[in-house]
Structures are given as C-alpha cells and as structure tokens.
Design a protein that fits this description.
NUDIX_hydrolase_dom, six-stranded parallel β-sheet, 28% helix, single chain, 3 domains, Nuc_deoxyri_tr2, transferase, 27% strand, 11 helices, seven-stranded mixed β-sheet, transferase activity, hydrolase activity, Rossmann fold, Nucleoside Triphosphate Pyrophosphohydrolase
Length: 406
C-alpha cells in the first residue's frame, strides 16, 4: 500500500496516458478494463508532501516507450488521477491489495529517503516478495534498502539500480503476455502459462463453468532462478453451470500431470500377477511403494515420458510403442487438479529377472530422486497396506478391467 498522509498537489499527482490504447493506466480507486494481455502494479513509496515529486510519471513514460506487446498492457498506479481526490483510506487499501495480488508483475521502485520513507512499502514487499511476480529497483543512494536487496539476491528476484532498468526487467518477464478476460485477469501470467492451469481451465470450460474471479495464494517454484512454477494454489470463484450457483470456498491445487506405468508379468490367477513398483522416500509419508512414473516440464508426449521414467526408476529400457494407454484420471480429485496418465506393459521373464537383480538406488541423475525397484505379487498388495488407494486403483484398472482408451 502506498505511504499516504494526505492529498498530493496536482503538479505531483500522476497523470493519465489518455489516447494510448496499448498502455492503459488505472489510478487509485478506478476499475480496470475487462480484458488485457499483461498488467503491472507500480509499488513503492508515494511522496508525503507536495515538495517531493512522484517517481511514477517517469515510470509510465518508460513503460509507454518500451511496451511493444500485441494488446493492452494495464498499469495500476496507486495514486489518484491528476486533480482527483484520494479515495477513502479503506477503499484505497482494498484497491491496492486487490490489484497488487492479481497483477502479472509488481514493480518495486524504492528511492527511500527524505519525504519518501517507504514505511508501507516494507509491508507490501513482505506480502509479494515470494510470489514470483516481483522485480526490485533501488537507486544507489536509497536509504535502508539492504534487506530488500539481500532478500532479492537470495530468492532470485531480478534487481536493478535505475528506474528504466527496473521497468525493463518487468517487461521482459511479461513477454507478449496472454489475452485474459473477466475472471481470467485474476490469474497472473506465471500460473496462466502452465499446462496444469490450462488443463484445469479447459475442463471447466468444457463443462460450461466460468471462472469469475480468484486470487493466487501460493506457488512452489523450481529451477536455478526459481523461474518455473511446479505447484500452485489458486482460490477460485467458479460459476457452476449445472447448478446455477457460484462456488467460492475451495482452493485449486495443481502440479504437472504425471505418467505412470504398470509393468507386470501376467499369471493364470490375477492375484499371482507380479508387478514392478519402486520404493522411494516421500517427505509427507516416509518410504512408500508406488508405480514408476513422473512428469515433464516440456511438451513431450506422455507415452514417451512414461517410458523415460520407467527406465530411470527401474532400469528397464522399454520402447514407447510397447506401452498400452489406459484412462487419464485425477489422483485425488478433492485435493489436486493434476491427473495421472496410465500406461502398462507386459514384461518377459528375463525383464522381470533384470528388475529383481537391481540393488539400487536408481533415479534421475543430478536430482534428489532415489528409487529402489521391487517386484511384488498383486494379491499381497491387496492383502497388505503397503500401497495407497491411488496405486491400487491404477493396478486394478490394468489387471482387472484391461480397458484401453488409446
């Protein structure tokens, strides 16, 4: 939230960019357009007196000069339009948090010094610094910004020492953006661009449902610069077409879909069928037995992902064309939106013996993954409690029904 103590003089208030369709400026208390391809929120200190000029007009000029996207870039400015009064305090606060939470990038420019102590800026930075949507700029002579710059270095937040450099960092992250309308505007680009979100949204749209609003609650990001979203949580407001109501009390949690393989040696009795599982340590549960499988950050066909994961985790080299496709289902529909792409392959006695001979650990080189292949009898898995219900369900899909949806 801006550092406010009273109205600014008109000469220091931020003006609009009227007439520029590519960049639309939305001032404090105003409503944004119903569609855009990208959005920025200009966070940082607001002058506390008419003698100190706002930095935001220069930021807007730089944005206008540099934005070359194919559609509308909305810039949220937490200062009133030139000549307009400040909104009532609580309205101002609500407006800032609402659109700062939803902007594709939050631009922090912190020229902390006399007339701009940036007290509320500290709270804003604390709210959004771990969101994956922040760039930080501080001039060399800014006061008391060592903590912000140090945290940014630790968490891979892009940092600049000039205002134009800070704007460039934010625009580079936006790229060409992506068109969003209505409630879709509430989904920041870093999650909008993930296949897991697009898969969830496509299923809602196919059912006739509509995303009305929402808020990104959390992301878990991976990569050297924490640039890839692996897991996200979004508080969605969805109009449920079949019930003609709006559901607002749940969070959508999702990660990339996974591909798993039931590698087995059939027997005369289903209970005697031998299957290949892997034993692996999972932080929520300790050591578990599960199907070999995993996900991909790219766009490889899931059949190929399944074959690669089977090889990495069990040592079996199986050509993708040997894998038989089964249904694609959620693993825990009330908990997460991601799905399991299930495949199966019948093994020879020699292949089964090769798995038995592996002492492990195996897993993806260079990661923390360690897997220990195990050959188990299906009847023993049914009788014991060594595998979870999801794994048992996948085994039943292959060994009992034998249906093929490919």
């Amino acid at each position: 939230m801006s550092d406010l103590s009273g109205p600014l003089a008109g000469a220091n208030a931020v003006g609009s960019l009227a007439g520029d369709d590519a960049v639309v400026v939305v001032h404090a208390g105003e409503e944004p357009p119903d569609r855009w391809v990208a959005s920025l929120f200009l966070a940082g200190p607001t002058p506390r007196s008419a003698e100190v000029a706002s930095w935001r007009p220069d930021a807007l000029s730089a944005i206008r000069e540099r934005w070359s996207g194919p559609g509308t870039l909305v810039v949220f400015v937490p200062e009133p339009r030139s000549g307009a009064p400040w909104p009532e305090y609580e309205h101002q606060r609500t407006w800032e948090l609402r659109w700062g939470d939803r902007a594709d990038q939050v631009v922090f420019w912190i020229p902390r010094g006399p007339g701009m102590p940036a007290l509320t800026t500290n709270d804003e930075f604390g709210r959004w610094k771990d969101s994956g949507r922040v760039v930080l700029g501080t001039p060399p002579d800014a006061e008391s910004v060592r903590y912000q710059r140090g945290y940014a270095a630790d968490q891979r937040i892009p940092v600049a020492s000039t205002l134009t450099g800070t704007i460039d960092l934010a625009l580079a992250r936006l790229g060409s953006g992506a068109l969003r309308t209505g409630g879709e505007r509430h989904v920041p680009l870093l999650v909008w661009r993930t296949p897991s979100f697009q898969n969830w949204l496509a299923r809602q749209t196919a059912a006739g449902n509509e995303l009305l609003a929402g808020r990104l609650e959390w992301t878990f990001r991976v990569g050297d610069d924490l640039e890839r979203v692996f897991l996200w949580a979004f508080h969605a407001h969805v109009r449920v077409a079949a019930e003609d109501r709006v559901k607002t009390n749940e969070v959508v949690l999702a990660r990339p879909d996974i591909a798993t393989v039931v590698a087995h040696r059939p027997a005369a009795e289903v209970a005697d069928t031998e299957v290949v599982l892997v034993r692996e340590f999972r932080s929520p549960a300790g050591f578990v037995l599960e199907l070999p499988g995993g996900s991909s950050e790219g766009d490889e066909p899931m059949r190929e992902v399944a074959a690669v994961e089977l090889g990495e985790e069990t040592g079996l080299t199986i050509a993708p064309e040997r894998l038989r496709a089964h249904h694609v289902r959620p693993l825990a529909a009330t908990f997460s939106a991601h799905r399991q792409h299930l495949f199966s392959v019948e093994l020879t006695e020699d292949e089964l013996a090769a798995v038995r001979a592996v002492t492990g650990p195996l897993g993806e080189t260079g990661s923390s993954e360690r897997t220990y292949p195990r050959v188990m009898r299906f009847g023993d898995l049914l009788a014991g409690g060594e595998v979870d219900w999801t794994t048992l369900g996948a085994l039943a899909e292959v060994l009992l029904s034998g249906r093929d949806s490919s």
